[in-house]
Amino acid sequence: MHPIVFRFPEALPILGGEAVTSFGVFMLLAFLTAGFALRAEMSRGGYDPDKAWDFIFMAVIGGILGGKIYYVLLNFPRLQQEGLSFVLQRSGMVWYGGFLGATALCVWEVYRSKLDLGRVADYVAAPLAIAYAVGRIGCFMVGDDWGRPTSLPWGVRFPLGSPPTRVDIIEREFGIAVDPELIERYGQIVPVHPTQLYEVALSTLIFLVLWRIRRHRHRAGWLFMMWLMMAGAERLLVEFFRAKDDRFFGILTLAQILSMALITVGFLGALRMRVAASAKPAAASGA
Asked: Which domain holds residue 94?
């Protein structure tokens, strides 16, 4: 785990002493990866490939704003206690909030540019999956979004995590009772499920599937609906292993409720957009 890649020299104006985190580096890599993949898809579809970077720009702005707003609303009592300083913290980015914010601005850009929403959505599907996988590597590197304590051989300890996987934090903040045998074996820093890596693996698999079927023979938008279903199912599963404090719905977290909504929307949308195998391919037009 390497949360900080490097620090700017103290003598440097404004940025002196500021840290460049591995999360920030992998977030940048995630957007770049999505941009190059989307550029290739838009070129294949007959669109200006450089238009991909307009969508990436919108995704960056909408993702950061949406992720931060979602986090603030989810932790509203802290906002009341800490005020503006809570909003301006570098931490606090929730993926579902970021997804909603990025989607809103990208849809606006599609209509502003007079493009076909269904086709663009299909071109975005596979890049979204691989970008999510790259971004989750950053979460692993800083020790964020880890899972429940485990004795499995691939469990990971995060002594410098955000937060560390300390017994008192796990029990106090997440309400999870830590097995005494784990404490006896590892001390106060116990291994947990590396749920970030679970998501990296599953999202990479989703990317490979979507990339393989991207030249589909259904109506435009079908591939994006398939991504909604698979991404929702992936998050729904992984959340069972996550250490979370937002299980407001029994054993289910808020993210799992949203995941089920994505699965439902994706399933119904895919059914609606499915056409006979003899029909002309929608996503392959312009190839």
From this structure: 20-147+193-273
